[in-house]
Amino acid sequence: xxxxxxxLLTLVSLPQLLFAQAADQVEMADKLRADGKxxxxxxxxxxxxxxxxxxxxxxxxxxxxxxxxxxxK
Length: 73
What we know:
Elements: H1 2-21, H2 27-35, H3 38-72
Signal peptide: 1-22
Pfam family, one: CcmD_alt
Organism: Dyadobacter koreensis
C-alpha cells in the first residue's frame, strides 16, 4: 500500500516539474486556451488518470485478498 501511495504522490508532483521547466509558450496550447478546448484536454487526462488509479486500487485489493487466502491454507 505504501508503494501505491508513493506512486500516486510521484504522479501528482510530476506535472509540476514539467510545467516548471516549460519556460516558453507553446502555440498549440495558446490556441487551445483561446478556443476554450484546453478544459476538454484537462478533463480527458483527469479521467484517464482517475481510471488508472481506480484500477490500481482494485487490483491491489484483489491481490491482498488472494494473499490472505493463501496464508490461511
